[in-house]
Amino acid sequence: MDESIFDRRLEEQLCFRLYRASNGLSKMYSRALRPFGLTFPQYLVLLALWDKEGVPVTDIGDRTGMGIGTLNPILKRMEANEWITKVHHASDKRTIVISLGEKAGQAKRQINHAILEELKGCRFEGMDLFGLMKQLELLQQQLETISNQADEK
Length: 153
Description:
The protein is mainly alpha-helical.
C-alpha cells in the first residue's frame, strides 16, 4: 500500500465504504428496533446480556466497545424502560451487576423477527457473510493493536 490510495475517488476509499456500510446497517437496525423503543446501542447491550447476564457494567463495556460515559446513560434508559435490572454486587458494592429484565426475555423473539425482516431486504444471498465477518474481525484486531501501540507511546 502506498500514497496512490489517496488518488482514488471518494467511492473507492476504504474509509468511505466502511462508513457507509456501518451507517446503513445502523439505520436498518434502528428501523427494526423503533417499535420496541430501543436504539441500536441498547440492542447491542441486550445481545451481550442474552449471551451472558448478571455481569458487571465493565464487562458489557468491554464486549460492546462502549466506554463507561457512553454506557451509563444507555443503561439508565434501559432500566427505566424495564429492559434490564441493576443491582450492586454482593461482595463489592462499587460494582454494578446488570441482568435482563423480564421484558427483554419476552420480546427477544419479536425483536429477532423484526431484524430478520429488515435483513431480508439486504439480499445477502450469495454473499460469504462468514468470510466477511472474519475479515472484519481481523481488521478490528489490527486496529486495536495499532491503538494499543499508540497508547503506549
